[in-house]
Specification:
Radius of gyration: 22 Å
CATH architecture of the largest domain: Alpha-Beta Barrel
Largest sheet: 8 strands, parallel
CATH superfamily of the largest domain: Aldolase class I
Shape: globular
Helix content: 10-25%
Low-confidence stretches: none
Length: 378
């Protein structure tokens, strides 16, 4: 697990405004390219540092033109993109070249209030986030395979959300985009039409659906009429030939009807492009509601197997996320994906003896709070 953010830096910058910069270790970069670059060097004393957006050293320096980079961010390398906030001495990685997945976090606002939300929503004025990301996209190296967009609820940003999609498409035309959204805003056909007009070749919307019963889904997301809006959103997206992934987080409130939900998807939404059945991440609201959410995955393996069998029978591409191989039957291993982002991924000592560790996705770092009692090496 690595830290994406540190506030232990010493930022001397006269500018109080946040800055978006691309990391370079090349001290001889042409001056015309330096203004939006952050140079990292171990030996700033004998270099021409003029015109760089910022200069970092892992050693503290009396030179006020050189900023201290905390050891927690020593992994930063050429091509990474960072956000620097001088007021709070904060440096945060927005994009990392070697990350297993890169998600652009566009807003904290959301129109749902899911009981297990890993990023609890806040009703704050944070439109600056997407503006900074639109600025950051051109700095990302060409050839990136996939970019994710997440929140909060990204689609609440309306035209600015569309602008971000357009910017990615312009600067990275071959890059796949995966948007995590509750899908409710897409019940308005006009937003779907704006997305469709982009004619993006590889754009996927990951939309949660937690039950085949509307009131049950609405309870999990804590929003009236959410089920109806979500289904309408999925139908509108598919009507415009957009790719849709259905995501199901499995916990105490959702596991019992997992087979019935799979049957509902197979009968009514067979045209979706992917279904992901996901283990629980113990962070955000999950911690507050842990006793009502946590169930040892070993206890719902029967429902999980039935759901996979049903979805497979309907020829729907299906994956299992966030579950360890020692907990699921070997016949389900082909469906299990290494899905946990590297910055919050970990393994336990018993994993070192496991013959399947190289194929297993491991654990969220938050598993320290609660994990299965049946973890054992294979």
């Amino acid at each position: 697990m690595i830290k994406l953010r540190s506030n232990k830096n010493l930022i001397h910058s006269d500018s109080k405004s946040p800055r978006i910069l691309k990391i370079t270790t090349n001290p001889n970069l042409p001056r015309i390219l330096r203004s939006n670059r952050a140079l990292i060097t171990d030996n700033p004393g004998c270099l021409d540092l003029s015109d760089y957006g910022m200069v970092f050293s892992t050693q503290k320096s009396k030179n006020t033109d050189v900023e201290f980079l905390d050891i927690q961010l020593s992994y930063l390398q050429d091509g990474d993109v960072i956000r620097v906030v001088p007021d709070s001495n904060t440096v945060r990685a927005i994009y990392r070249v070697n990350a297993s997945a890169n998600f652009l976090f566009v807003t904290e606002r959301c129109n749902s209030f899911c009981i297990m939300c890993s990023q609890p929503p806040r009703d704050v004025a944070d439109s600056y986030l997407i503006e900074e990301l639109i600025e950051a996209v051109p700095l990302i190296d060409k050839g990136v395979t996939e970019l994710g967009i997440t929140g909060g609820e990204p689609t609440l940003l309306g035209s600015r959300f569309i602008k971000l999609l357009q910017t990615i498409q312009i600067y990275h035309p071959g890059t796949a985009i995966h948007v995590l959204t509750n899908g409710r805003t897409f019940s308005d056909p006009s937003l779907v039409e704006q997305v469709s007009r982009l004619e993006h070749d590889d754009l996927m919307f990951g939309i949660p659906l937690y039950s085949d019963i509307s009131d049950h889904h609405d309870f999990v997301v804590q929003a009236d009429h959410a089920f109806d809006e979500t289904i309408k959103g999925i139908l509108n997206l598919k009507r415009h030939s957009q790719k849709v992934e259905i995501r199901v987080v499995v916990h105490q409130q959702t596991y019992k009807r997992l087979p019935q939900l799979a049957e509902f998807i197979g009968r009514n939404l067979q045209f979706v492009d992917h279904v992901a059945l996901m283990g629980l991440e113990i962070t955000g609201f999950t911690r507050a509601n842990l006793e009502d959410l946590w169930i040892d995955p070993i206890e719902y393996i029967g429902e999980l197997e039935r759901a996979v069998d049903i979805l497979t029978r309907y020829k729907i591409r299906t994956s299992i996320y966030n579950l360890q191989r020692c907990l699921i039957p070997s016949r389900l291993w082909p469906y299990a994906v290494k899905s946990i982002s590297d910055w919050k991924n970990k393994y336990y000592p018993e994993c070192n003896e496991c013959s399947q560790k190289h194929n297993c996705g491991g654990f969220f770092a938050s598993a320290d709070i609660r994990k299965s009692a049946f973890i054992k090496p294979i």
